[in-house]
Amino acid sequence: MLYSPSPEGAVKKFYLYVFHNIMFKPLSVFVGLRYTRAKRRDHFISFISLTSMFGVALGVAALITVLSVMNGFEKELRERILGMTSHAFITGANGTLKDWRSLESLISGAPHVVDSAPFVEGQAMLSQGSRVRGTLIRGVDPQLESRVSTIGDKVVQGDFDALKEGDFGIILGKDLAIAMRVATGDKITLITPHVTPTPAGVMPRLKRLNVVGIFEIGMYEYDSALAIMNIKDAAKLFRIPDKVTGLRLKLDDVFQAPRITSELLATLPSSFRAADWTYQHANFFRALKTEKTVMFVILLLIVAVAAFNIVSTLIMMVTDKQADIAILRTLGMTPRDIMTIFMVQGTMIGIFGTLLGIVGGVTLALNVETIIANLEHVLGYQFLPADVYYISSLPSDLRWNDVTIIGITAFLLSLLSTIYPSWRASKIRPAEALRYD
Questions:
Q1: What's the pLDDT score for residue 200?
Q2: I need a labelling partner for 266 at 20 to 30 A (CA). Which of 242, 296, 334, 366 fits?
Q3: What DSSP designation does 244 have?
């Protein structure tokens, strides 16, 4: 017959378990919490504790704010770049496509390909009086361009639909228009790298264009060096009539662009070449990622310094409480319990510092754009000049996974900093500590 404990015995065992494991063992936790909030005779130790707590909070807040700003820059740059460049493009072996409509019909049903549009692209110079500026000319179809880019929504003067075939109109970036000192309705001269032989010698190919609009992306690289034309007019100027440079694609997942482009190219004849936006701007986004990692490590040192302050605080506390430790040992506390007391105290400093830093960092990250804008208004100074930086504002993109990683890392550093002082406290011998008391 199997033994079956009575209900009374089970209840008794339960209460014994609660007493020994929940009521007695937290005594060290209670003492640790008591030391944390008790008024100490030595105010210097209290000051060091507060310094450690605010040091952890400052490091956590700085990490959250800086990483949010860097995430904001990356997101803003990606959106602006992808608003002007396609997710991917396909071209021929010689850099041109003769029958882009046939290619469009081939890829129209391909997985992950949302839409496509043809384009013509080439380098040229713009001249107005004594002012000459190199620029990238992009020929687009005004009726199809909205499929793959947002350039039509960025026109601040004139009309994007004014790019009609045969009118040889041009839309300039805002900074390019300012540099050339032209506005909508003015004329400007385009100089292409193609030459025309004449009795007087070889002459560059010139064409007088009408400025029909001005766009503003908010990214100096494009606003200062890009001009938009009708695709037919651009093809004539670059001497590729009835051809285009390639076909720009819009994908359903920009982060999978390399894989999608590779799979799509595998289904096409070998005479086609393809590239995606990550290939075109790979070094740029790789540099952003590296910079973000480096900034995380550097700012984490602030939290590490605050953690070392916790070490100093606990060592001074152990020295100050030697008599108390000895009395607790004589009352039956084990070295492990003594160690727990000071680990609890240091951990509480780390927890409160981390929570305070998370609250401050999240608040600052969510309002950094408004704060910087107000500072610029008060000081009358722009921190990020548009002619130097890609983005002239300070965007912020708070990501909760970053907040979680930062919080856990700060807590672990604080927890690790309590081990050595707590171990020192557990090694104190009651007889030696009470000898002179």
A1: 53
A2: 242
A3: B
